[in-house]
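B., you asked whether I could sanity-check this one before it goes into the benchmark set. Here's the sequence:
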Amino acid sequence: MHTGNPPPQHRWRRVFGRGLLVIGVLFALLAIPEPLPPSPTGAGKEPFIWNRQELWSDLESTFAQAKVPASSPAAGILASNLTAQLDTLARQPAPGLPPTAILFDEIETNFFRLAPLAAAGDPSVPLSFFLDAYAQLRGEIKRHSEHWPMEAREPRERLYRALYGSRAAVEEVLLQLPADRIPALLEGVREPSQAPSALVHRIALHSGDILVSRGGAATSALIARGNDFPGNFSHVALVHVDEQTAAVSVIESHIECGVTVSGIEKYLADTKLRIMVLRLRADLPQLVADPLLPHKAASRALMEARGRHIPYDFSMDHADPAKQFCSEVAAAAYQPLGVRLWMGMSHLSTPGVTSWLGALGVRHFETQEPSDLEYDPQLRVVAEWRDPETLFKDHVDNAVIDVMLERAEAGERLGYDWHKLPFARLAKAYSVVKNWFGGIGPIPEGMSATTALRVERLTANHAAIAARLLEKAEAFKAGRGYVPPYWELVRLAREALSETVGRQPGS
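And here's what the prediction gave me:
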């Protein structure tokens, strides 16, 4: 009987087999799913619904039938009426009209009905007239809202209808124009400020100004649209201008690395589909008492950002400044100085939105959403920049997220590719080590491996639907001779979703 050691090939097989077993066990352990978080209940409010599909269709028909350069008799009447209505609004002394005033409804309808005529090139509604009317409407509605109770439903709806609705109408007009005719800058109110300033792209930015912007990622679209009042913006940053050098710094919080400080050129170099400049009203009692309050708030935020690492707050808990999501950077800077931003808090209430955001780590659904800062009566709109080349991309991204959220409301969960979980957990472990040494790993600090995979699924699905939607939009334009308005984009996005992603099971 042979009692010696087994042949080498047998030993290698045994080692190889044991190695495969260990790898299999590790893979199985790393593939164990995380416990599902508690089902979020949301803010318990009612989301805003336009419910004006008949008007949208009528506006599209008006545009399609408009003849250029022939002038429509209705255009002159509508333009004259709108001018008179805005003048009436401007003559109202403080405290102004209540949000329920019928004049606001009349202005809204007139403005919407003028939009297709302006887009068609009707001589009675030149683009300059339409944009000036938009600027006047935005300024007046903000002035009248200064005395409205912003936690109440009616003021919030009125501001949303006027500000978001008029912007949407303006952009429908702009998208029918050649790109070289789309103005990149729309100026607002030249609100005075005694804080240090610097000229940036023709606008004097003052220390303490707030930049509200929209990124190009799928998550940016989700942040902007996943709201009881779906909006246009997904990010907030605070401006600091050095009183000696006029150097402009931007303090903001990024998902990837938390709160950072960067120069204005670096801020502008990141993907931005639109930027709005907001400034505190100079007549606020806090600023009358201390005109340099905005600069002090910005200096406070700058010092804190440079003095400690502030992680990103995925839970969106605006009451705890230890971690900060983007909105908290501005809110936390102003709060100790007696200015509470977001006089009307943001609400996220629908089951689909709260389910998807909850799956991405959000735990607070009455919070501070970037889009909603525009409706704060304490702030003036100083300027708004749009990139003419990417304005349509903004609308496409919104339409895709809107139809994806329709699936969410129907019960579809935000899933992930389960077989990638072991590799994602290894990437997370690597990221944790990098975070210890001050670096940034592939998975952000505070984000789990599972959440990272959900973001990956969201991004991939969004990109696939958007690509198909762009094809459909081109076919629509070729067939009808104009760029599809937003309601048509949503319809086409529903078709694109069913043709590309389909119904994928959640995990």
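One thing to flag: Residues 399-500 form one domain. Otherwise nothing jumped out at me.
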